[in-house]
Design brief:
This protein is α/β, with parallel strands linked by helices and 484 residues long. Helix content is 40%, strand content 13%. The chain has an 11-stranded mixed β-sheet with strand order 1-3-2-4-6-5-10-11-9-7-8, with helices on both faces.
Length: 484
């Protein structure tokens, strides 16, 4: 059953070939069997999901209308609120925090009869590119347990890659869905900024954060995006347009479409990474696409711009975690100042403290003009550069990551770790939809992804390209043999 796509599971449930209870039990057994070695889940809702499945079977037996995701198991990243359940954000600071409300995206899933299986592991407060910075335990890559699954949504990526669930939600601030998707051979989709409501997502960088799905096919991505991409009255940045019927568009031909490749930006790549990307472009040519060169010279500044702006926003957003309103209070604290200082010292991990300090530095009065405001101006220039590029092409293609999955604990230099976001950050700076699609394997069967960007609002077009590319692939995006 785990080899079926979410789309196929839904059809089998609707046709009566399998019950929701059987689906839930099957995937709960897989989670129980493999989660200890992978570290994907921080919480599994065993009893609750079985009750939910039983109620769904009864609803079907009565002939009541069923939702678009009826019978589909879905996991959610543990920085997304689900009322009555812990939201730890992978941090000791929130180890006892229970969500008082449910995120809009989770409410949408429940309203369409999805089975919510549990909460997935992540880098603390979604800050990291390896999922090693969880305060509880690291996540491991199903293709090689000695390697990282990427981050920060590594738990969701690994769970989908190992078929512990067919769909999992992640969040993407600078590539935290797409880079793990590349490392684990899954489909990782970052929608247009505002397409999916952020209401209920614990904020890292509010002008960057986007919720999106991991799946094993573009069809499954389209299916869940029809549910997630809805207007939300609780989110002032939410798209007010109704979601497009993505499944109706994915089979459209790509004949005559133009794909821009910023060769100047990716010329530093070498070896098999570049070779697999070029092979991916050949697949697109077979589909009738024309590959053209597009100029994005300012993208070389994207990493410093992103890490100035995102850490500034993180510094502001995480100020609320003070040991009084939120989080675990330090037992050593005797005064109010000590509660603030010691609770943050004890509650936050090293990576989070480092980013908060950097953000506080760039927001300080003597540095705001030199760093923060200048970075905002460069961000605007990058947005305009993308707009000009899309006048010449339908989408832009780049590698998703500069390398395959690296070994756990092998990157000590934070600057080298930040370079993992080299090809993904641009979409967050400009609010663009982007997807990582499997495009081959490195030696040793480590997967690799190719990334497609579209202009704002072109979510349907991006999913069309992903589906057509998937259909034309010359390799089979397989499941890691241990989990087959």
């Amino acid at each position: 059953m785990h080899t079926l796509s979410a789309f196929e599971l839904n059809k089998k449930f609707l046709s009566g070939e399998v019950t929701a209870q059987a689906i839930a039990e099957h995937f709960l057994q897989r989670i129980k069997k493999y989660n200890d070695e992978l570290g994907c889940f921080l919480a599994v809702f065993d009893n609750e999901v079985l009750q939910q499945a039983k109620a769904l079977d009864e609803k079907k037996a009565k002939g009541e209308p069923l939702g678009k995701l009826a019978g589909v198991p879905i996991a959610i990243k543990d920085n997304i609120q689900f009322e009555g359940h812990k939201t730890t954000c992978g941090s000791k600071f929130l180890e006892d925090y229970v969500a008082p409300y449910t995120a809009s995206c989770v409410s949408h899933l429940i309203s369409e009869d999805a089975l919510i299986m549990g909460k997935t592991n992540l880098d603390e407060f979604a800050m990291g590119s390896s999922s090693e910075h969880s305060a509880y335990f690291p996540v491991k890559n199903p293709w090689d347990l000695k390697r990282a699954p990427g981050g920060s949504s590594g738990g969701s990526a690994a769970a989908v890659a190992a078929r512990l669930v067919p769909i999992a939600l992640g969040s993407d601030t600078g590539g935290s869905i797409r880079q793990p998707a590349s490392f684990t051979g899954t489909f990782g989709y970052k929608p247009t900024y505002g397409r999916v409501s952020r209401y209920g997502l614990v904020a890292f960088g509010s002008s960057f954060d986007v919720i999106g799905p991991f799946t094993n096919s573009a069809q499954d991505t389209s299916m869940v995006m029809e549910v997630l991409g809805r207007p939300c009255p609780h989110d002032g940045t939410s798209y007010q347009e109704l979601p497009e019927p993505y499944l109706d568009h994915i089979d459209n031909s790509l004949q005559g479409k133009k794909i821009g490749v910023p060769w100047d930006f990716i010329e530093s790549m070498e070896g098999e990474s570049l070779q697999l990307f070029k092979q991916g472009l050949e697949v697109l040519k077979k589909l009738g696409c024309e590959i053209i060169d597009c100029k994005l010279p300012l993208l070389k500044h994207s990493i410093p711009v992103y890490y100035i702006l995102s850490t500034a926003e993180a510094s502001t957003n995480l100020a609320r975690f003070d040991g009084i309103r939120y989080g675990t209070r330090s037992k050593e604290a005797q005064t109010l100042d000590e509660i603030y200082d010691l609770s943050k010292r004890d509650g936050f991990g090293a990576e989070v403290r480092q980013r908060i300090m950097l953000g506080t530095f760039v927001l300080s009065s003597e540095h705001q003009e030199v760093f923060y405001r200048k970075a905002q101006r460069v961000r605007t220039l990058i947005i305009n550069e993308y707009k000009d590029a899309f006048k010449e092409c339908d989408i832009i293609a780049t590698p998703t990551a500069p390398n395959p999955a690296f070994e756990l604990d092998s990157i000590k230099d934070p600057l080298k770790m930040y370079l993992q976001d080299l090809y993904t950050i641009g979409a967050n700076l400009a609010g663009l939809p982007a997807i990582s699609v499997p495009c081959g394997h490195f030696d040793g069967k480590l997967p690799c992804g190719i990334q497609f960007f579209g202009k704002q609002g072109d979510d349907a077009k991006i999913l069309q390209f992903a589906h057509q590319f998937e259909s034309e692939q010359t390799f089979e995006p397989s499941i890691p043999s241990r989990y087959a």
